[in-house]
Amino acid sequence: MSNRARSNVTRPSRPFRAPEKDCKVCKKPAFCEHYGVFSCNSCKSFFKKALDKGPHYCLKLGVCMKNPDLMSKCKACWFQKCVELGMTSCSLRKLRGSNEKLFDLVKNLLLIDVRRTSKIAGFYTSDDPTLDELVVNPRCLKPCEKDPSQILSILDWCFLLNSLQVVFFLDFEFIQNLPTMDKIYMFKANNLNDCMLAGAMRSVQSDWETLRTPTGHAYNTFELINQVDNSKELLKVIEKRVVEKMVDIKVTHEEFVLLSMVFFLDPATPNISETTAKTLAEYQNYYASALLQYCEFYHQKDAPTRFVDLLSIKSIVHKNTSDLKYLYLTFQNAITDLKIKKILFSTCDLPGAPQTYLGSENG
Ligand SMILES: [Zn+2]
Ligand SMILES: [Zn+2]
Description:
By secondary structure, the protein is mainly alpha-helical.
């Protein structure tokens, strides 16, 4: 044992210590731990502000994380570094003492979500795989440079968010290990719902009252909307519905990451095999009971009400995606030669899916 404490020292008082280590985040001199990580004052106050005012988007696909000079200029990469190193809110750390396992689970889900969110705004690709191609090989999506004058349409955004969502879920090993066809059925049934939930959460965190693109643009400014009668009205409803509910019941980021797993891992997904349904039921149970424990810790006797409130978001999300699918269908019907990326035929249930879709069984 290396106990270096001297007997004549009454109590070591932290603020007077000379900086003895570098800040784990930015490598500048630091004195003590903040938010659970040895860090300097500027990283501490950055993290405090960032917790209130997320989410953060990197426009360079996260490269600034690797360069300390760039990192402090990019909120997304700075925040991600803090979270990667284990910084957590004071409120979440309270959980640590009473339920370490749940604390670790939530902390990891938050990290995975921060990673996916930070790269969304900067991601662009001209690739156009089908859903099955993407499921078989998630690496087939290669980011490429966007022509700065090019404005993405509502359908482009829907494609990017949908495909990144597929890649995100395939990062979970137990999902990766499911049979390919079952994965395709899962994404076909649930991907758009989770995009909707995640999009609404990003709006809540950014203090936007409606769904917006990750770059902060309102969807109703897109040209497509003006070209098709009545679509503006329907879009107005879609933009507000889920966000309003989530603001209303004040869904936290921690609740969202658990809820997203509970919704996505749906054993009632049509067409999946019995074995997969069983696996999904197990995992869904696992995340649902984690969510319930989380509610119990933070809401005590009101936990059951909180839990039910959170689960009630599901039907609102479903109503919203079914309206969104209808909106896309009206675009498709009204505009001949509308360019729609292949994945959207599957995740948005649009007619006229390209040939390879749920394609050849010939292996
Ligand atoms: Zn620092
Ligand atoms: Zn960055």
